[in-house]
Amino acid sequence: MHIPKEVQDAIQKVNSGISKPEDRAIITDWYNSFDDSSAVVDAATNEEEIKSRILQAINKRRSAKPLLRPLYFRIAAAASALLVMGYLAFRLYPDQPADLSIQAGVHLNYTDGEQQQINSTMEAFLDSTAFDNLSAYQKNRSEQLLTLSTAKGQLYKFVLNDGTKIWLNAGSKLTIMPAFNEQTRTVKLIGEAYFEVAKNEKVPFEVISDNQTIQVLGTKFNVKAYHDEASITHLYEGKIALNTPVQSEIVLPGQAVINELGRLEAKQENQSISKEWTSSIFSFFQSEYDRHTYQSLPVL
After folding, report:
1. pLDDT at 55
2. CA distance 223 to 234
3. Which of 47, 167, 233, 278 satisfies CB 3.0 to 4.6 Å to 157 for a cystine?
């Protein structure tokens, strides 16, 4: 099933809250071009009921008897899920003004107990040149831990004082260790983040997550390390050393490494899919519809 690019773009704009009437018309025309038996959604329908219907539809596809062309139907499921999300969004809230806020502010917590919020927008997140400079929040606090937290529906990208760029996915937490870029460059991650690490051979960059440590000099990689599932590390450029209490692995470009309770398994994988979330392109077929697939989707 092929989704025209203009339809993909329109769905993305609807999900981002920046759609125009012509974008909604594109989705409606494409939706009406199918002869299906989908139920008509009443605008007064309870939001929780709508979410439940969407998840039931996806789970029904997941449990269906496998056919001869599983990839085709997985992509078709992705298209259907994206279409339903976008279509319901503008059917339920057709008169709402465009809201560029991803969600409420990203939380910053310091060791001394102080908290701050950073407001981010989808427009800024999608701007390839726009990065928040985290140094502005670290003045006179280089000896403190700084923790960034995103809730469901929140996305944030920023640059560290060493020049490293980080995209933080929804439902994630990144802690920057004291004296960063002096003796060490160490961060701790819960959740998912994409890193473009600035090169510094004298001070290696470390990412510590549940049951593993990644050491790099300068490279591009994505780490998905939520507490309740296996960790997955994708490498795009350079080389990294991935260490657990029971195993070590040198990871090469194009490889994905799965960490199950410290046991590492490396394999070749479609690298573009794993970081689509950094462009706000939601991939429903990179995993078996696990709940984190929906982390960065806006709440209907």
Report:
1. 60
2. 7
3. 167
Two structure tokens written together for 135: 């140094």
- Please give the structure tokens belonging to residue 239: 């080389």
Between CA 83 and CA 77 the distance in angstroms is 10
Give me the DSSP letters along the chain: -PPPHHHHHHHHHHHHT---HHHHHHHHHHHHTS---PPPPPTTS-HHHHHHHHHHHHHHHHHSPP-S-HHHHHHHHHHHHHHHHHHHHHHHSTTPPP--B-SSPEEEEETTS-EEEE--BHHHHH-TT--EEGGGG-TT-TTS-EEEE--TT--EEEE-TTS-EEEE-TT-EEEEPTTBTTTBEEEEEEEEEEEEPPP-TTS-EEEEETTEEEEESS-EEEEEE-TTS-EEEEEEES-EEEE-SS-EEEE-TTEEEEEETTEEEEEE--HHHHTGGGGT---SSSSSS-GGGGTTSPP-
Q: Where in the chain is the domain with CATH 2.60.120.1440?
A: 106-269
175-210 in b/e form (b: 16+ CB < 10 A) is bbbeebbeeebbbbbbbbbbbbbbeeeebebbbbbb
272 contact partners, CB below 8 Å, separation of at least 6: none
For residue 297, the cross-strand partners are none
pTM: 0.62
Average pLDDT, the chain: 74
Any idea which architecture 106-269 has in CATH?
Sandwich (2.60)
Arithmetic mean of pLDDT, 127-136: 85
Q: Using the predicted structure, report yes or no on whether residue 117 has a pLDDT greater than 50.
A: yes
For the stretch 269-287, pLDDT in tens is 766 666 767 775 544 333 3
Average pLDDT for residues 49-57, to the nearest whole number?
60
